[in-house]
Amino acid sequence: MINSSSIFNLVGIAAFFQLAAFFYYRYFRRGRQRIDLLLANLMVLSTFSCLAEFLIDNVVPAGTKAIDVPGAPKRSVMLSRIHYLVGLAAMAGQLHFVLAYCRFRRWPFRYVVSMYGLFFVCAPVVLCSDWVLRIRHQPLADTAGFWQTVPYMPEQGPLLVVYFSVWLLVQLALQGILLWAHRRAKGKTGILRYSGMIRAAFLIVAVGVLADIVAIYWLHYGGPTFLSVAFLVSALILAIVVIRESEDRDEELARVRKDSERFIQKRKVLDKKLADAKKEAAKLTAERKADDKERADAKEYIRELSEERESIDEAVQRLQEDEDFVKKIPDDMEWRRVEGSSLSGDRRRDLVFISYSHEDNSRWLKEFQTHLRPYLRAGSYILWYDQRIAVGSKWFTEIQVAVASTRVAVLLVTPNYLASDFIRIHELEPFLKDNQRGHACIVWIPVLSSAYKETPLKDIQAAIDPEKPLAGMKPWNRDKVWVDICAEIKKKIDS
Question: pTM of this prediction?
Fold first, then answer.
Protein backbone atom coordinates (compact mmCIF):
# COMPACT_ATOMS: atom_id res chain seq x y z
CA MET A 1 0.00 0.00 0.00
CA ILE A 2 1.42 3.40 -1.02
CA ASN A 3 1.82 6.25 1.40
CA SER A 4 -0.93 8.83 1.16
CA SER A 5 1.60 11.69 1.04
CA SER A 6 3.00 10.43 -2.25
CA ILE A 7 -0.22 11.38 -4.00
CA PHE A 8 1.43 14.74 -4.77
CA ASN A 9 4.20 12.90 -6.58
CA LEU A 10 1.70 10.97 -8.69
CA VAL A 11 -0.04 14.19 -9.65
CA GLY A 12 3.34 15.68 -10.55
CA ILE A 13 4.28 12.65 -12.67
CA ALA A 14 1.01 12.84 -14.61
CA ALA A 15 1.24 16.62 -15.11
CA PHE A 16 4.91 16.70 -16.09
CA PHE A 17 4.50 13.75 -18.47
CA GLN A 18 1.65 15.48 -20.29
CA LEU A 19 3.53 18.77 -20.44
CA ALA A 20 6.63 17.00 -21.81
CA ALA A 21 4.55 15.24 -24.48
CA PHE A 22 2.82 18.51 -25.36
CA PHE A 23 6.08 20.45 -25.87
CA TYR A 24 7.73 17.61 -27.76
CA TYR A 25 4.72 17.68 -30.05
CA ARG A 26 5.09 21.42 -30.48
CA TYR A 27 8.77 21.00 -31.23
CA PHE A 28 8.31 18.40 -33.97
CA ARG A 29 5.11 19.86 -35.46
CA ARG A 30 5.55 23.62 -35.17
CA GLY A 31 8.87 24.64 -36.66
CA ARG A 32 11.29 22.91 -34.28
CA GLN A 33 11.73 25.83 -31.90
CA ARG A 34 14.67 25.10 -29.59
CA ILE A 35 12.95 26.65 -26.60
CA ASP A 36 10.14 24.03 -26.88
CA LEU A 37 12.69 21.21 -26.90
CA LEU A 38 14.55 22.54 -23.86
CA LEU A 39 11.33 23.04 -21.89
CA ALA A 40 10.20 19.51 -22.81
CA ASN A 41 13.54 18.21 -21.50
CA LEU A 42 12.98 20.07 -18.22
CA MET A 43 9.52 18.50 -17.99
CA VAL A 44 11.08 15.05 -18.45
CA LEU A 45 13.60 15.75 -15.68
CA SER A 46 10.76 16.95 -13.42
CA THR A 47 8.90 13.74 -14.22
CA PHE A 48 11.92 11.64 -13.20
CA SER A 49 12.33 13.76 -10.05
CA CYS A 50 8.72 13.11 -9.00
CA LEU A 51 9.10 9.44 -9.87
CA ALA A 52 12.25 9.19 -7.72
CA GLU A 53 10.47 10.89 -4.81
CA PHE A 54 7.48 8.54 -5.22
CA LEU A 55 9.77 5.50 -5.05
CA ILE A 56 11.67 6.93 -2.07
CA ASP A 57 8.39 7.58 -0.21
CA ASN A 58 7.23 4.00 -0.77
CA VAL A 59 10.41 2.08 0.11
CA VAL A 60 8.62 1.35 3.38
CA PRO A 61 4.88 0.86 2.62
CA ALA A 62 2.32 2.57 4.79
CA GLY A 63 1.56 0.74 8.03
CA THR A 64 4.64 -1.50 7.72
CA LYS A 65 7.40 -1.51 10.30
CA ALA A 66 10.65 -0.18 8.92
CA ILE A 67 12.77 -3.02 10.30
CA ASP A 68 10.56 -5.57 8.50
CA VAL A 69 11.45 -4.24 5.01
CA PRO A 70 14.66 -5.92 3.84
CA GLY A 71 17.21 -3.67 2.06
CA ALA A 72 15.23 -0.53 2.83
CA PRO A 73 18.30 1.55 3.90
CA LYS A 74 20.24 0.75 0.70
CA ARG A 75 17.27 1.36 -1.58
CA SER A 76 16.54 4.63 0.18
CA VAL A 77 20.07 5.94 -0.27
CA MET A 78 20.31 4.75 -3.92
CA LEU A 79 16.99 6.32 -4.91
CA SER A 80 17.98 9.51 -3.08
CA ARG A 81 21.26 9.62 -5.00
CA ILE A 82 19.34 9.19 -8.28
CA HIS A 83 17.07 12.00 -7.15
CA TYR A 84 20.07 14.28 -6.58
CA LEU A 85 21.55 13.22 -9.94
CA VAL A 86 18.32 14.31 -11.65
CA GLY A 87 18.64 17.61 -9.77
CA LEU A 88 22.17 18.02 -11.15
CA ALA A 89 20.91 17.45 -14.70
CA ALA A 90 18.09 19.91 -14.02
CA MET A 91 20.69 22.61 -13.16
CA ALA A 92 22.31 22.19 -16.58
CA GLY A 93 18.90 22.13 -18.28
CA GLN A 94 17.82 25.31 -16.48
CA LEU A 95 20.96 27.16 -17.58
CA HIS A 96 20.56 25.98 -21.16
CA PHE A 97 16.89 27.00 -21.17
CA VAL A 98 17.61 30.49 -19.84
CA LEU A 99 20.45 31.08 -22.32
CA ALA A 100 18.18 30.03 -25.19
CA TYR A 101 15.30 32.17 -23.94
CA CYS A 102 17.56 35.23 -23.64
CA ARG A 103 18.63 34.68 -27.26
CA PHE A 104 22.34 34.45 -26.62
CA ARG A 105 23.03 33.44 -30.22
CA ARG A 106 26.77 33.97 -29.88
CA TRP A 107 27.02 31.76 -26.78
CA PRO A 108 29.79 29.36 -27.79
CA PHE A 109 28.62 25.82 -28.38
CA ARG A 110 31.63 24.44 -26.53
CA TYR A 111 30.47 26.15 -23.32
CA VAL A 112 27.13 24.35 -23.45
CA VAL A 113 28.89 21.06 -24.17
CA SER A 114 31.24 21.71 -21.25
CA MET A 115 28.28 22.35 -18.97
CA TYR A 116 26.71 18.98 -19.80
CA GLY A 117 30.14 17.33 -19.70
CA LEU A 118 30.60 18.57 -16.14
CA PHE A 119 27.29 16.91 -15.26
CA PHE A 120 28.49 13.54 -16.58
CA VAL A 121 31.78 13.91 -14.69
CA CYS A 122 30.00 14.58 -11.41
CA ALA A 123 27.38 11.86 -11.96
CA PRO A 124 29.55 8.92 -10.67
CA VAL A 125 30.45 10.91 -7.54
CA VAL A 126 26.80 11.59 -6.75
CA LEU A 127 25.72 8.00 -7.46
CA CYS A 128 28.51 6.04 -5.73
CA SER A 129 30.19 8.25 -3.13
CA ASP A 130 29.33 8.14 0.57
CA TRP A 131 30.68 11.66 0.71
CA VAL A 132 27.35 12.89 -0.64
CA LEU A 133 24.79 10.58 1.06
CA ARG A 134 25.35 7.77 3.58
CA ILE A 135 23.14 4.89 4.65
CA ARG A 136 21.06 5.42 7.79
CA HIS A 137 21.10 2.21 9.82
CA GLN A 138 18.61 3.28 12.48
CA PRO A 139 15.16 4.37 11.22
CA LEU A 140 13.79 7.73 12.16
CA ALA A 141 10.38 6.15 12.82
CA ASP A 142 9.08 2.64 13.39
CA THR A 143 6.64 2.81 10.47
CA ALA A 144 6.04 4.97 7.41
CA GLY A 145 3.22 7.46 7.77
CA PHE A 146 1.91 10.71 6.33
CA TRP A 147 4.38 12.83 8.32
CA GLN A 148 7.29 10.40 8.09
CA THR A 149 7.28 8.66 4.72
CA VAL A 150 11.01 7.83 4.67
CA PRO A 151 12.11 6.17 7.90
CA TYR A 152 15.57 5.49 6.47
CA MET A 153 16.25 9.03 5.28
CA PRO A 154 19.96 9.01 4.18
CA GLU A 155 22.46 10.89 6.25
CA GLN A 156 24.12 13.86 4.55
CA GLY A 157 27.82 13.72 3.65
CA PRO A 158 30.33 16.59 3.48
CA LEU A 159 29.99 16.95 -0.33
CA LEU A 160 26.28 17.60 0.03
CA VAL A 161 27.13 21.09 1.21
CA VAL A 162 29.14 21.59 -2.01
CA TYR A 163 26.20 20.20 -4.01
CA PHE A 164 23.76 22.69 -2.50
CA SER A 165 26.31 25.51 -2.85
CA VAL A 166 26.61 24.81 -6.57
CA TRP A 167 22.85 24.65 -6.81
CA LEU A 168 22.55 28.01 -5.04
CA LEU A 169 25.13 29.57 -7.41
CA VAL A 170 23.20 28.23 -10.42
CA GLN A 171 19.97 29.78 -9.12
CA LEU A 172 21.69 33.12 -8.57
CA ALA A 173 23.22 32.87 -12.07
CA LEU A 174 19.77 32.23 -13.55
CA GLN A 175 18.33 35.30 -11.84
CA GLY A 176 21.33 37.42 -12.81
CA ILE A 177 21.26 36.36 -16.46
CA LEU A 178 17.54 37.05 -16.73
CA LEU A 179 17.87 40.47 -15.09
CA TRP A 180 20.83 41.46 -17.27
CA ALA A 181 19.12 40.28 -20.46
CA HIS A 182 15.94 42.13 -19.50
CA ARG A 183 17.83 45.39 -19.02
CA ARG A 184 19.69 44.89 -22.27
CA ALA A 185 16.41 44.34 -24.14
CA LYS A 186 14.68 47.29 -22.47
CA GLY A 187 12.88 49.40 -25.05
CA LYS A 188 12.84 46.66 -27.70
CA THR A 189 9.35 45.56 -28.62
CA GLY A 190 8.42 41.92 -27.96
CA ILE A 191 11.77 40.82 -26.51
CA LEU A 192 11.97 39.07 -23.08
CA ARG A 193 8.48 40.26 -22.27
CA TYR A 194 7.92 37.42 -19.78
CA SER A 195 11.37 37.25 -18.17
CA GLY A 196 9.85 38.27 -14.83
CA MET A 197 7.55 35.23 -14.86
CA ILE A 198 10.51 32.95 -15.57
CA ARG A 199 12.44 34.47 -12.68
CA ALA A 200 9.41 33.92 -10.46
CA ALA A 201 9.16 30.28 -11.60
CA PHE A 202 12.79 29.54 -10.78
CA LEU A 203 12.44 31.46 -7.52
CA ILE A 204 9.49 29.24 -6.52
CA VAL A 205 11.63 26.16 -7.20
CA ALA A 206 14.47 27.64 -5.17
CA VAL A 207 12.13 28.34 -2.24
CA GLY A 208 10.75 24.81 -2.41
CA VAL A 209 14.24 23.29 -2.40
CA LEU A 210 15.38 25.47 0.50
CA ALA A 211 12.24 24.58 2.44
CA ASP A 212 12.91 20.87 1.88
CA ILE A 213 16.56 21.22 2.91
CA VAL A 214 15.65 22.96 6.15
CA ALA A 215 12.77 20.57 6.93
CA ILE A 216 14.63 17.37 6.11
CA TYR A 217 18.18 17.97 7.33
CA TRP A 218 17.59 20.32 10.20
CA LEU A 219 14.06 19.54 11.42
CA HIS A 220 14.14 15.85 10.37
CA TYR A 221 10.79 16.29 8.66
CA GLY A 222 9.75 13.22 6.59
CA GLY A 223 6.32 14.23 5.26
CA PRO A 224 5.22 15.49 1.82
CA THR A 225 7.97 17.56 0.17
CA PHE A 226 7.55 21.13 -0.93
CA LEU A 227 9.71 20.50 -4.03
CA SER A 228 7.04 18.57 -5.92
CA VAL A 229 4.52 21.36 -5.50
CA ALA A 230 7.17 23.97 -6.40
CA PHE A 231 8.14 21.98 -9.49
CA LEU A 232 4.52 21.74 -10.60
CA VAL A 233 3.83 25.45 -10.13
CA SER A 234 7.10 26.36 -11.84
CA ALA A 235 6.37 24.03 -14.77
CA LEU A 236 2.95 25.57 -15.26
CA ILE A 237 4.43 29.08 -15.23
CA LEU A 238 7.14 28.12 -17.74
CA ALA A 239 4.56 26.43 -19.96
CA ILE A 240 2.39 29.57 -19.91
CA VAL A 241 5.43 31.71 -20.74
CA VAL A 242 6.51 29.55 -23.68
CA ILE A 243 2.98 29.34 -25.07
CA ARG A 244 2.51 33.09 -24.77
CA GLU A 245 5.89 33.70 -26.35
CA SER A 246 4.87 31.43 -29.21
CA GLU A 247 1.54 33.21 -29.63
CA ASP A 248 3.25 36.59 -29.55
CA ARG A 249 5.79 35.33 -32.08
CA ASP A 250 2.99 34.11 -34.35
CA GLU A 251 1.21 37.46 -34.04
CA GLU A 252 4.44 39.28 -34.78
CA LEU A 253 5.06 37.01 -37.75
CA ALA A 254 1.54 37.65 -39.04
CA ARG A 255 2.05 41.39 -38.60
CA VAL A 256 5.38 41.21 -40.40
CA ARG A 257 3.79 39.25 -43.23
CA LYS A 258 0.99 41.79 -43.44
CA ASP A 259 3.51 44.64 -43.50
CA SER A 260 5.52 42.72 -46.06
CA GLU A 261 2.46 42.34 -48.28
CA ARG A 262 1.73 46.04 -47.89
CA PHE A 263 5.32 46.90 -48.78
CA ILE A 264 5.12 44.55 -51.76
CA GLN A 265 2.00 46.36 -52.96
CA LYS A 266 3.75 49.70 -52.47
CA ARG A 267 6.75 48.37 -54.35
CA LYS A 268 4.51 47.27 -57.23
CA VAL A 269 3.00 50.76 -57.34
CA LEU A 270 6.47 52.30 -57.27
CA ASP A 271 7.65 49.88 -59.98
CA LYS A 272 4.68 50.90 -62.13
CA LYS A 273 5.48 54.57 -61.57
CA LEU A 274 9.11 53.86 -62.39
CA ALA A 275 8.08 52.08 -65.60
CA ASP A 276 5.85 55.04 -66.52
CA ALA A 277 8.73 57.40 -65.76
CA LYS A 278 11.04 55.36 -67.99
CA LYS A 279 8.46 55.45 -70.79
CA GLU A 280 8.13 59.22 -70.37
CA ALA A 281 11.92 59.53 -70.36
CA ALA A 282 12.11 57.45 -73.54
CA LYS A 283 9.44 59.64 -75.11
CA LEU A 284 11.32 62.80 -74.11
CA THR A 285 14.54 61.28 -75.45
CA ALA A 286 12.84 60.54 -78.77
CA GLU A 287 11.49 64.09 -78.91
CA ARG A 288 14.93 65.42 -78.08
CA LYS A 289 16.45 63.34 -80.87
CA ALA A 290 13.81 64.69 -83.25
CA ASP A 291 14.63 68.24 -82.12
CA ASP A 292 18.34 67.51 -82.56
CA LYS A 293 17.65 66.21 -86.06
CA GLU A 294 15.63 69.31 -86.90
CA ARG A 295 18.42 71.45 -85.48
CA ALA A 296 20.98 69.55 -87.55
CA ASP A 297 18.82 69.94 -90.67
CA ALA A 298 18.54 73.65 -89.94
CA LYS A 299 22.32 73.90 -89.56
CA GLU A 300 22.79 72.01 -92.82
CA TYR A 301 20.34 74.34 -94.55
CA ILE A 302 22.19 77.36 -93.16
CA ARG A 303 25.47 75.85 -94.37
CA GLU A 304 24.03 75.34 -97.86
CA LEU A 305 22.79 78.91 -97.87
CA SER A 306 26.25 80.07 -96.80
CA GLU A 307 27.88 78.08 -99.59
CA GLU A 308 25.38 79.47 -102.09
CA ARG A 309 26.14 82.96 -100.84
CA GLU A 310 29.86 82.30 -101.23
CA SER A 311 29.23 81.09 -104.79
CA ILE A 312 27.26 84.25 -105.51
CA ASP A 313 30.06 86.35 -104.00
CA GLU A 314 32.62 84.54 -106.17
CA ALA A 315 30.45 85.11 -109.27
CA VAL A 316 30.17 88.80 -108.40
CA GLN A 317 33.92 88.98 -107.89
CA ARG A 318 34.55 87.32 -111.27
CA LEU A 319 32.24 89.79 -112.96
CA GLN A 320 34.13 92.62 -111.29
CA GLU A 321 37.42 91.16 -112.46
CA ASP A 322 36.07 90.83 -116.01
CA GLU A 323 34.95 94.42 -115.88
CA ASP A 324 38.42 95.46 -114.70
CA PHE A 325 39.96 93.36 -117.45
CA VAL A 326 37.91 95.09 -120.12
CA LYS A 327 38.83 98.50 -118.74
CA LYS A 328 42.53 97.68 -118.98
CA ILE A 329 42.42 97.05 -122.76
CA PRO A 330 44.20 99.97 -124.60
CA ASP A 331 42.21 101.82 -127.22
CA ASP A 332 45.01 101.69 -129.84
CA MET A 333 45.59 97.95 -129.58
CA GLU A 334 45.10 95.66 -132.57
CA TRP A 335 42.21 93.31 -131.89
CA ARG A 336 41.87 89.68 -132.62
CA ARG A 337 38.17 88.97 -132.65
CA VAL A 338 36.32 85.76 -132.07
CA GLU A 339 32.72 85.99 -133.15
CA GLY A 340 30.08 85.61 -130.41
CA SER A 341 32.48 85.96 -127.42
CA SER A 342 31.87 88.17 -124.42
CA LEU A 343 35.65 88.76 -124.53
CA SER A 344 35.49 89.73 -128.23
CA GLY A 345 38.37 91.63 -129.67
CA ASP A 346 42.06 91.09 -130.26
CA ARG A 347 43.11 90.45 -126.67
CA ARG A 348 46.60 90.78 -125.36
CA ARG A 349 47.94 87.78 -123.47
CA ASP A 350 47.36 88.66 -119.83
CA LEU A 351 45.42 85.64 -118.53
CA VAL A 352 46.54 82.89 -116.19
CA PHE A 353 44.43 80.00 -117.53
CA ILE A 354 43.71 77.09 -115.21
CA SER A 355 43.05 73.93 -117.19
CA TYR A 356 41.51 71.04 -115.20
CA SER A 357 39.07 68.13 -115.49
CA HIS A 358 35.57 68.41 -114.08
CA GLU A 359 35.76 64.71 -113.22
CA ASP A 360 38.30 65.45 -110.49
CA ASN A 361 37.73 66.76 -107.02
CA SER A 362 37.29 70.53 -107.06
CA ARG A 363 39.51 70.72 -103.99
CA TRP A 364 42.65 71.03 -106.08
CA LEU A 365 41.22 73.98 -108.05
CA LYS A 366 40.17 75.76 -104.88
CA GLU A 367 43.53 75.22 -103.18
CA PHE A 368 45.38 76.55 -106.21
CA GLN A 369 43.11 79.60 -106.46
CA THR A 370 43.60 80.34 -102.79
CA HIS A 371 47.41 80.25 -103.04
CA LEU A 372 47.70 82.09 -106.42
CA ARG A 373 45.26 84.92 -105.87
CA PRO A 374 47.58 87.04 -103.63
CA TYR A 375 50.26 86.98 -106.38
CA LEU A 376 47.87 88.35 -109.04
CA ARG A 377 46.00 90.87 -106.93
CA ALA A 378 48.44 93.72 -107.45
CA GLY A 379 49.42 92.89 -111.05
CA SER A 380 47.84 93.34 -114.47
CA TYR A 381 47.15 89.64 -115.05
CA ILE A 382 43.82 87.94 -114.46
CA LEU A 383 43.13 84.42 -113.22
CA TRP A 384 40.70 82.60 -115.55
CA TYR A 385 38.97 79.20 -115.52
CA ASP A 386 35.74 77.98 -117.12
CA GLN A 387 33.61 78.69 -114.02
CA ARG A 388 33.99 82.39 -114.83
CA ILE A 389 31.99 82.10 -118.04
CA ALA A 390 29.00 84.41 -117.65
CA VAL A 391 25.48 83.04 -117.76
CA GLY A 392 24.06 83.23 -121.30
CA SER A 393 27.47 83.35 -122.97
CA LYS A 394 28.66 80.82 -125.53
CA TRP A 395 30.93 78.73 -123.39
CA PHE A 396 32.97 77.19 -126.20
CA THR A 397 33.64 80.60 -127.73
CA GLU A 398 34.62 81.92 -124.30
CA ILE A 399 37.14 79.09 -123.86
CA GLN A 400 38.63 79.78 -127.32
CA VAL A 401 39.05 83.47 -126.55
CA ALA A 402 40.58 82.71 -123.11
CA VAL A 403 43.04 80.21 -124.64
CA ALA A 404 44.06 82.80 -127.23
CA SER A 405 44.58 85.38 -124.45
CA THR A 406 46.57 83.13 -122.11
CA ARG A 407 50.01 84.19 -120.90
CA VAL A 408 50.55 81.30 -118.43
CA ALA A 409 48.65 77.98 -118.79
CA VAL A 410 48.45 76.04 -115.50
CA LEU A 411 47.56 72.38 -116.11
CA LEU A 412 46.24 70.32 -113.16
CA VAL A 413 47.19 66.93 -114.59
CA THR A 414 45.34 63.80 -113.48
CA PRO A 415 44.29 60.58 -115.25
CA ASN A 416 40.88 62.16 -115.95
CA TYR A 417 42.60 65.21 -117.40
CA LEU A 418 44.70 63.21 -119.86
CA ALA A 419 41.71 61.02 -120.76
CA SER A 420 39.55 63.98 -121.86
CA ASP A 421 39.52 64.45 -125.66
CA PHE A 422 37.99 67.91 -125.30
CA ILE A 423 40.86 69.10 -123.12
CA ARG A 424 43.44 67.50 -125.45
CA ILE A 425 42.00 69.12 -128.64
CA HIS A 426 40.77 72.50 -127.45
CA GLU A 427 43.12 73.33 -124.58
CA LEU A 428 46.27 71.22 -124.40
CA GLU A 429 47.21 71.28 -128.11
CA PRO A 430 46.65 75.07 -128.50
CA PHE A 431 48.76 75.66 -125.37
CA LEU A 432 51.56 73.42 -126.74
CA LYS A 433 51.60 75.37 -130.02
CA ASP A 434 51.63 78.76 -128.26
CA ASN A 435 54.43 77.45 -125.99
CA GLN A 436 56.53 76.48 -129.04
CA ARG A 437 55.95 79.93 -130.58
CA GLY A 438 56.83 81.66 -127.28
CA HIS A 439 53.40 83.25 -126.92
CA ALA A 440 52.53 81.38 -123.69
CA CYS A 441 54.19 79.40 -120.91
CA ILE A 442 53.02 76.00 -119.66
CA VAL A 443 53.19 75.10 -115.94
CA TRP A 444 51.83 71.59 -115.50
CA ILE A 445 51.27 70.26 -111.99
CA PRO A 446 51.02 66.48 -111.40
CA VAL A 447 48.11 66.25 -109.00
CA LEU A 448 47.69 62.46 -109.27
CA SER A 449 49.87 59.77 -110.77
CA SER A 450 49.09 59.55 -114.53
CA ALA A 451 50.39 58.34 -117.92
CA TYR A 452 51.99 61.71 -118.77
CA LYS A 453 54.90 59.91 -120.46
CA GLU A 454 52.53 58.97 -123.29
CA THR A 455 51.76 62.66 -123.99
CA PRO A 456 53.79 65.65 -125.18
CA LEU A 457 54.00 66.75 -121.53
CA LYS A 458 56.91 64.36 -121.07
CA ASP A 459 59.10 66.89 -122.89
CA ILE A 460 58.04 69.82 -120.68
CA GLN A 461 59.44 70.29 -117.17
CA ALA A 462 56.79 69.75 -114.49
CA ALA A 463 56.36 72.09 -111.55
CA ILE A 464 57.16 69.23 -109.15
CA ASP A 465 58.45 65.70 -109.44
CA PRO A 466 55.72 63.69 -111.28
CA GLU A 467 56.65 60.64 -109.18
CA LYS A 468 55.56 62.57 -106.06
CA PRO A 469 52.18 64.09 -106.98
CA LEU A 470 50.30 66.51 -104.73
CA ALA A 471 47.67 63.98 -103.66
CA GLY A 472 50.31 61.88 -101.87
CA MET A 473 51.60 64.78 -99.74
CA LYS A 474 50.67 65.78 -96.23
CA PRO A 475 48.57 68.98 -96.03
CA TRP A 476 51.42 71.05 -94.53
CA ASN A 477 53.89 69.82 -97.15
CA ARG A 478 51.37 70.44 -99.92
CA ASP A 479 50.86 74.05 -98.82
CA LYS A 480 54.59 74.65 -99.09
CA VAL A 481 54.64 73.15 -102.60
CA TRP A 482 51.68 75.33 -103.65
CA VAL A 483 53.56 78.42 -102.46
CA ASP A 484 56.65 77.44 -104.48
CA ILE A 485 54.54 76.76 -107.59
CA CYS A 486 52.73 80.12 -107.30
CA ALA A 487 56.04 81.90 -106.87
CA GLU A 488 57.34 80.23 -110.06
CA ILE A 489 54.18 81.29 -111.94
CA LYS A 490 54.71 84.86 -110.72
CA LYS A 491 58.25 84.79 -112.16
CA LYS A 492 56.96 83.60 -115.53
CA ILE A 493 54.33 86.33 -115.55
CA ASP A 494 56.90 89.01 -114.78
CA SER A 495 59.49 87.75 -117.27
Answer: 0.48
